[in-house]
Amino acid sequence: MNKKEARKFYRAVRKNYSNDDVITLSNKIFRNLQNIDFSSVQNFHVFLPIERNNEINTYPIIDWLFSLNKTIILPLVVGDDMINCKVEKDFKTQLNSYQIPEPITYTEFDSKEIDVILIPMFVADKKGNRVGYGGGYYDKFLARCRPDAKKIGLSYFRPIDCIEDTYFGDFPLNFCITPDAIESF
């Protein structure tokens, strides 16, 4: 399956999820994520969910990380790129023109200082290659991060066998957290 086919198929499946499905599956992903030992890392990049796209609800993950005294960095789209926004526990958001929640008050944060990156996606393959929305925002962002930063995809779906059209600019995941498992690559 190529990226375009995977994106179309998994977008359609996800679009049919009810609000209860999103809550239940997001909670299972969160519980699986809690099984990873994050004691030696501090700085977490976490995406905020686009609710109309039935994305995984990351707000409980953010609350949990704050309870562990971790630093939370959120993405903010600026033009054709993203910047990193360090936020405090009581952060507020607003929807941009694409209905993506973005922080209102923040401090810019250096990509090289991020230890763990939670990445939105549709699906990964068994080598850790991922299919996102296709805009290239995360590829540009990941290119600026340290090579040892842990890349963790969050997906409702187990990895497929192969994404046929990966290229050198793709950054494979270290892990993919699904409702059923922690996949390691």
Q: Could you name the key traits of this structure?
A:
185 residues; alpha/beta; eight-stranded mixed sheet; 4 helices; 12 strands; 24% helix; 25% strand
Fold and architecture overview:
This protein is 24% helix and 25% strand. The protein has four helices and twelve strands. It has helices spanning 3-15, 19-33, 59-67, 137-144, and strands spanning 43-46, 71-78, 81-87, 93-95, 101-103, 107-108, 116-120, 123-124, 130-131, 150-154, 175-177, 182-184. The strands form three sheets. An eight-stranded mixed beta sheet has the order 6-3-2-1-7-10-11-12. It has a two-stranded antiparallel ribbon with strand order 4-5. Strand 4 (93-95) and strand 5 (101-103) form a beta hairpin. The radius of gyration is 15 Å and the shape is globular. It starts with a helix and ends with a strand. The mean pLDDT is 95.
Short note summarizing the structure:
This protein has 185 residues and is of the alpha/beta class.
Quick one: biggest sheet? 8 strands, mixed
Helix content: 10-25%
What is the percentage of strand-forming residues?
Answer: 25-35%
**What is the alpha-carbon Rg in Å?**
15 Å
Mean pLDDT: 95
Secondary-structure element pattern, one letter each: HHEHEEEEEEEEHEEE
**Inertia-based shape:** globular
Order of strands side by side in the largest beta sheet? 6-3-2-1-7-10-11-12
Q: Counting H and I runs of at least 4 residues, what is the number of helices? A: 4
Number of strands: 12
Structural class designation: alpha/beta
